[in-house]
Amino acid sequence: MTLYMIGIGLWDEKDISVKGLETVKKCRHVFLESYTSKLGVSTAVLEKFYGKKIVLADREMVEKQAEKIIAPAKDEDVAFLVIGDVFGATTHTDIFLRAKKEAVNIVVIHNASVMNAIGVVGLELYKYGKTTSIPFDNANVETPYNVLKENKKAGMHTLVLLDIHAHKDKFMTVGQGIEFLLSVEKKRKEKVFTEETLCVGVARLGSPDQKIFAGKAKSLMSADFGGPLHCIIVPGKLHFVEEEALEQWK
Ligand SMILES: C[S@@+](CC[C@H](N)C(=O)[O-])C[C@H]1O[C@@H](n2cnc3c(N)ncnc32)[C@H](O)[C@@H]1O
């Protein structure tokens, strides 16, 4: 009897690891955390590949009714699937600690996360500062701008995650993210993020048609990145190898 916390990767049903797949197949209950990220395939495709029925765990279930996931793991094997990695960006540490307190045996099976897959862009992962995210409801929000400001001061790169309302199939685009940052710049006027700021727009990382464009904010704003998910990277101080890497996306 174990709670298996399994990262299933970034794009499709085959991104799960061999260890993850073997484990899901033997579990009695399979939950999929369904609100903080999105795969390129439907739950039905996962169910077919795993040969298992999947229960979608929305925010309410994971944050307020975690018992529904933890309690069965006292007597049976339970898989809690997370898109990307279990502890990438959204950490799910709460559910881990709760299960631990209840003396439930826990096994974590890792996978790629947006947090490390962005390495493909060519900016050193060691040189990223604090990650920030832009919510849809952002009328009075300035935190992403402040994070950018601090990272920029330290010469660090910034990963900007963009909001997603998975249940409504709504996701924020690179263009909307840039528009938001420019709107804060308009209020603050501190030249932290202007139309001339170099950015990297990233879409569908890990998929066969992932898109990466580097350029000035104003040019990325009108570029077509296609379907979900999107994120933005604002480079800090660049090493010449990083500069060379960015050239390929321009
Ligand atoms: C909370 S994070 C996802 C955390 C996930 N557990 C992981 O490890 O990747 C979700 C946000 O990351 C970004 N993201 C996730 N997967 C992505 C992908 N494949 N391509 C581009 N951006 C992605 C999007 O901005 C999305 O709204």
Question: Can you offer a commentary on this structure?
Answer:
This protein is α/β, with parallel strands linked by helices and 250 residues long. Helix content is 32%, strand content 20%. The strands form 3 sheets. Strands 3-2-4-1-5 form a 5-stranded parallel sheet, sandwiched between helices. The protein has a 5-stranded mixed sheet with strand order 6-7-12-10-11. The longest helix is centred in the last third of the chain and has 15 residues, at 174-188. The radius of gyration is 19 Å and the shape is elongated. The termini are far apart. Bound molecules: S-adenosylmethionine.
Task: Present the secondary structure layout.
Blueprint: E1 3-7, H1 18-26, E2 29-33, H2 43-50, E3 55-57, H3 59-64, H4 67-70, E4 78-82, H5 93-101, E5 106-109, H6 114-117, E6 132-134, H7 143-153, E7 158-162, E8 164-165, E9 170-171, H8 174-188, E10 198-203, E11 211-216, H9 217-221, E12 230-234, H10 240-247
Parallel strand pairs: 1-4, 1-5, 2-3, 2-4, 6-7
Antiparallel strand pairs: 7-12, 8-9, 10-11, 10-12
Bound molecules: S-adenosylmethionine.
S-adenosylmethionine binds at residues 10, 36-37, 82-85, 88-90, 113-115, 161-162, 164, 202-206, 229-231.
